[in-house]
Amino acid sequence: MEQLTIWLASGNKHKQQELAAIFSKQTIIIPQEAGIINFDPPETGTSFAENALIKARALYRELDAAGKILPGESCPVLADDSGLWVDALGGRPGIYSARYYGKNSWNSDGSFREKSAPEKLKDEERNLLLLEELDNVLSTAEFAKQTPAARPVSANGRNRCCRFICAMVLLFKPERFFLVQETVEGEIVPSAEEIRGQGGFGYDPIVYLPEFNCTVAQLPEEEKNLISHRGKAGRAIAKLLNR
After folding, report:
1. Average pLDDT, whole number, for the chain?
2. pLDDT in tens, 153-192
3. Which listed site, 132, 139, 193, 225, has its alpha carbon 20 to 30 Å from 76?
4. Alpha-carbon dihedral of residues 25, 31, 35, 41, nearest 10 degrees?
5. How many domains does the chain have?
6. What is the C-alpha separation between 56 and 173, in angstroms, rounded?
7. How far is it, in rounded angstroms, from Cα 35 to Cα 38?
8. pLDDT, tens digit, for every residue of 182-206?
9. Contact 89/160 with Cβ under 8 angstroms?
């Protein structure tokens, strides 16, 4: 049987390779291979799931306009949105993880404050800013007044619970799709001195996994792929597809 082609709503070749290993019975293609350059739809959703759907539907429309969707043929699109959720920060940075720039990222009502001239921070800079914001919140009088039951507490008693979240969509038509959301539970390291690991990217060096006694960035690549939020979501989608 001919392999099913799945279009990936991302131009990230590393992500393409990672998902190709999971969807081994299918062929994963990125937008550039259809002549769709600079695919980057505005992520205007209020959740990971909404943003994943926005990306999938946007690519489906572009493929249709480019004549890649033929009558009677399937043209599935795969999209994901992911980020870091920190309990003590009320879920921040969440869907804004890639755009986060510290405690000044938020308006007084908690909404994200877009920069007029956004600059791309290095991962190391963003991680230090998140540690600073978390420490500021944990030291506030408002947080101290919360009852113990209301405070998010990690296994070792620190109020630093967090999780990576990935919502993944496999879309066949704009209103027909599979949607899966998965997590990896962890803790934010207690200080900049505890940042560990050269692997991974983004917030991986500041997310500690108690069951592995290391940060995500210290895990070997194969082991990380087995327990990662994207890996788990991808395998769940692949299982649905291959039933």
Report:
1. 89
2. 554 546 899 999 999 999 999 999 999 999 999 999 999 9
3. 225
4. 160
5. 1
6. 9
7. 10
8. 999 999 999 999 999 987 789 999 9
9. no
Could you tell me the residue range of the domain that residue 189 belongs to? 4-241
Q: What is the pLDDT of residues 68-119, one digit of tens each?
A: 887 777 789 999 999 999 999 999 999 999 999 999 999 999 899 988 777 7
User: For the domain that residue 18 is a member of, what is the CATH number?
Assistant: 3.90.950.10
The residue ranges of DSSP E strands in the chain, in sequence order, are: 4-8, 26-29, 77-86, 161-173, 176-188, 207-209, 214-215
Count other C-beta atoms under 10 Å from residue 94's C-beta. 18
Query: Which tokens in the block code for residue 92?
Result: 């921040």
Tell me how many degrees the CA angle 194-198-203 measures, rounded to the nearest 5.
65
Catalytic residues: 81
- Two structure tokens written together for 140: 């506030």
What is the rounded CA–CA span in Å between residue 207 and residue 89? 15
Contacts of 118 (CB under 8 A, 6+ apart): 99
Strand partners, 77: 7, 171
Report the predicted TM-score, pTM, of the whole model to 2 decimal places: 0.89
